[in-house]
């Protein structure tokens, strides 16, 4: 009888554990883990156990995440929603996850990101993965607003790689004062400007590999210097080693300790410089300076010579006028008298035409 009672209790416990696991998901109370992987789910399943710390809902067809999606899951610390075709994340969608530290939204199609989409109470979020997550270029503006409004001061890692970003909005990271690692690899960034790295004084790693950076002008170098503690990765960019590369080449030679792949940075254009180390581009730029100085000197000399010639011509013209002053004066007077005679003749004809007696004579003649 006692064994039977134990069996009933065990079956009840197993049944309760099984019942607490959502359909088409796998639950492990011992590992505090729930996995709902590639089950064609259309929304976040209900009934996720409260013990869950690691929640993986990946490879499904979930289009939207809202405030009701994760209610009652106070213990979740790691949440993966990758590869779900998510297009919209509403404000406070993750606010109910009081202990959330890592959020993975990679490989989605985020087109609409509401201003407080990543708000988590207690600012517990430490890692945010948005690799291959943005649907198009316009969604980066939504992202910028969300990063400003979501209270992410304690965020340590942000991954924005593989998003085809062509620019970074001004001060997009200014509210991420605690960020330590920023991954911007494999985008299409052509420049750093408009204080896009402002507020990241504590940054320790910045990855800019595999972008479209051809050089770093002075503004771009100021951006890199605004994160003085960060180790930089700049490889696999199509650097153009013409005269404009000089500021970057000089900066790179002085900052090799910060640029981890400085020795591997190679020129991509022009063809004569291809695969040449950017560090060695200083020799080219010295020649540029010499050519530029010579060109400036020649241009200045040309301007001076032109000014002298024009001045000389002007003096000759004034001298000729002076020598012919009497003849010029006579011609002016003659022209004035001729104009006066023409005007008087014209005025006389007008008076004759307007004389009423003349009109009477004409009428009488007709009769």
Automatic annotation (TrEMBL):
One of its GO terms (cellular component) is plasma membrane. Coiled coil: none annotated. Residues 1-19 form the signal peptide. InterPro entries: Cys-rich_flank_reg_C, Leu-rich_rpt, Leu-rich_rpt_typical-subtyp, LRR_dom_sf, LRRNT, Wnt_signaling_inhibitor. The chain crosses the membrane at residues 303-323. SUPFAM superfamilies: L domain-like (SSF52058). The keyword Transmembrane helix applies. Residues 20-54 form the LRRNT domain. Pfam families: LRR_1, LRR_8. SMART domains: LRR_TYP (SM00369), LRRCT (SM00082), LRRNT (SM00013). The keyword Transport does not apply. One of its GO terms (biological process) is negative regulation of canonical Wnt signaling pathway. It comes from the Eukaryota. Keywords: Leucine-rich repeat, Membrane, Repeat, Signal, Transmembrane, Transmembrane helix. Residues 237-289 form the LRRCT domain. This is (Atlantic silverside) hypothetical protein. It comes from Menidia menidia.
């Amino acid at each position: 009888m006692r064994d039977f009672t134990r069996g009933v209790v065990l079956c009840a416990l197993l049944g309760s554990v099984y019942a607490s696991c959502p359909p088409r998901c796998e639950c492990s109370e011992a590992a505090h883990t729930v996995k709902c992987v590639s089950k064609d789910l259309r929304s976040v399943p209900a009934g996720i156990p409260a013990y869950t710390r690691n929640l993986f809902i990946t490879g499904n067809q979930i289009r939207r995440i809202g405030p009701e999606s994760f209610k009652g899951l106070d213990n979740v610390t790691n949440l993966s929603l990758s590869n779900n075709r998510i297009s919209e994340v509403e404000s406070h969608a993750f606010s109910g996850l009081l202990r959330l530290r890592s959020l993975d939204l990679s490989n989605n199609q985020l087109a609409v990101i509401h201003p407080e989409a990543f708000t988590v109470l207690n600012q517990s979020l430490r890692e945010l993965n948005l690799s291959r997550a943005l649907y198009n270029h316009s969604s980066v503006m939504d992202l910028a607003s969300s990063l400003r409004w979501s209270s992410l001061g304690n965020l340590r890692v942000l991954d924005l790689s593989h998003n085809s970003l062509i620019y970074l909005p001004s001060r997009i990271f200014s509210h991420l004062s605690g960020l330590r690692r920023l991954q911007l690899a494999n985008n299409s960034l052509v420049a750093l400007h408009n204080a896009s790295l402002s507020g990241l004084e504590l940054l320790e790693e910045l990855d800019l590999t595999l972008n479209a950076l051809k050089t770093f002008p002075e503004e771009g170098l100021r951006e890199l210097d605004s994160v003085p503690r960060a180790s930089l990765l700049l490889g696999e960019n199509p650097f153009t080693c013409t005269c404009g590369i000089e500021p970057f080449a000089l900066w790179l030679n002085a900052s090799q300790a910060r640029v981890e792949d400085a020795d591997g940075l190679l020129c991509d254009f022009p063809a004569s410089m291809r695969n040449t180390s950017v560090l060695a581009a200083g020799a080219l730029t010295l020649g540029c300076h010499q050519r530029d100085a010579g060109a400036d000197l020649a241009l200045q000399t040309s301007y001076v010579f032109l000014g002298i010639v024009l001045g000389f011509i002007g003096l000759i013209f004034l001298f000729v006028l002076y020598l012919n002053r009497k003849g010029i004066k006579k011609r002016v007077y003659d022209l004035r008298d001729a104009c006066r005679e023409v005007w008087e003749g014209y005025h006389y004809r007008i008076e004759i035409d307007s004389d009423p007696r003349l009109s009477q004579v004409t009428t009488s003649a007709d009769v």
